Amino acid sequence: MNEVKEHDSLEQMIRQQVIERGIADPAVLDAMRSVPRERFFSGDQRDSAFADKASPIGHGQTISQPYMVALMTQRLDLARGHRVLEIGTGSGYQTAILARLSGEVYTVERVKPLLDEAWERLMDLGIRNVHFRHGDGMLGWPDQAPFDRILITAGAPRVPEKLLRDQLRDGGVAVVPVGPDDGQMLLRIVRRGRKLEPRDVVPCRFVKLIGQGAWDDPSADDR
Ligand code: SAH
């Protein structure tokens, strides 16, 4: 694909998959327009860059469907000054969108090669307000807490209450898919003091969140 074609495909993706499904926040749409999604796909997967689905990125993981990225981003209600914790960097696509809309992004990924590739892509795109860490995101990033926003981009078996109470600022918002392996509910959770107030957003299906207080590590050979 050449650049003009990719621009057209990106516009079409945003119109058909995002705007027509009700995402209207102009800042979210602008952020999606400014991030070349095809750059987050390796050669053999590039044809699916604008497809209406999650796609494989290696190591048994996936880049989220464009609509899901847009929806999660919109429900986070980001502001320019926000400090955001993202758990599950994956390809780095969602990370790039968050970086466009907030102040500083702290992103954690447990699969090192994915983290390294994401770092390279964001460097190439000139995105400099992202901090990368390899490890279990369920431990958060204590020395940078509290965060205004927390986004988890893998499916948690239950609400990660400890992480949210310890590292989400009072009044802050978290977006987290919660539920069994074969299908979760995307939750938008507001922290009010010790209370966590969850609201359902949409049924969804993400890869497993693996770590402390989440799913068990099935093996050690996927790192
Ligand atoms: N937003 C990413 C989604 C990647 S899929 C994208 O669109 O590309 C979810 C990612 O979460 C996977 O890369 C997986 O390795 C990672 N992950 C799962 N459990 C994790 C944990 N406890 N800490 C950090 N990353 C985790």
SSE diagram, text form:
Layout: H1 3-18, H2 26-34, E1 55-58, E2 61-63, H3 66-76, E3 83-87, H4 93-101, E4 104-109, H5 112-124, E5 130-134, E6 147-152, H6 161-167, E7 168-178, E8 184-192, E9 195-204
Parallel strand pairs: 3-4, 3-6, 4-5, 6-7
Antiparallel strand pairs: 1-2, 7-8, 8-9
This protein binds S-adenosyl-L-homocysteine.
**End-to-end separation:** 32 Å
Shape designation:
globular
Largest sheet: 7 strands, mixed
What integer value in Å does the Rg equal? 16 Å
Helix content: 25-40%
Question: Which ligands occur here?
Answer: S-adenosyl-L-homocysteine
What do the pLDDT scores average to?
96
User: What class do helices, strands and sheet pairing give?
Assistant: alpha/beta
Percent of residues in beta strands: 25-35%
| Poorly predicted sequence stretches spanning 5 or more consecutive residues | none
Structure explained in plain terms:
The mean pLDDT is 96. Helix 1 (3-18) crosses helix 3 and helix 2 packs across helix 4 (93-101). It contains six helices and nine strands, in the order H-H-E-E-H-E-H-E-H-E-E-H-E-E-E. It has helices spanning 3-18, 26-34, 66-76, 93-101, 112-124, 161-167, and strands spanning 55-58, 61-63, 83-87, 104-109, 130-134, 147-152, 168-178, 184-192, 195-204. With 223 residues, the chain is an alpha/beta fold. The structure holds S-adenosyl-L-homocysteine. S-adenosyl-L-homocysteine is lined by residues 61-64, 87-88, 90-91, 93-94, 108-111, 114, 136-138, 153-154, 207, 209-211, 214.
